[in-house]
Fold this sequence. Notes:
By secondary structure, the chain is of the alpha+beta class. It is built from 4 helices and 4 strands. It is flat and about 60 Å long.
Amino acid sequence: xQPKASSLKKRLFLLIAGGTIFYFSFDPLGSLLDKQMxxxxxxxxxxxxDGAKNFPKILTRTGxxxxxxxxxxxxxxxxxxxxxxxxxxxxxxxxxxxxxxVKQVSGVWKIYQSDxxxxx
Length: 120
């Protein structure tokens, strides 16, 4: 009886650890909530948010990225405009990206302004 109880504890531990690693690696709930907030065509905003850490011009200045933070603000209640703040901390520098986007009549988001600041 002892080996079965130990095996069950190991399986339970591996299941919990695997679920935790999956959640923090991919954050599916956060992406789902962002898609709900942005509406039908969030592709441009999500591509900017997820692609910033792989952009070659940013990587040459920051080096390997250690942490990333995203913040989306909708300044008005209609949710037809958006402010996106991305902070990427790397081994050489930190990159802060501020972008502004508007939702066009067709429902597609368009980024019309983007500024990147690097700090040591």
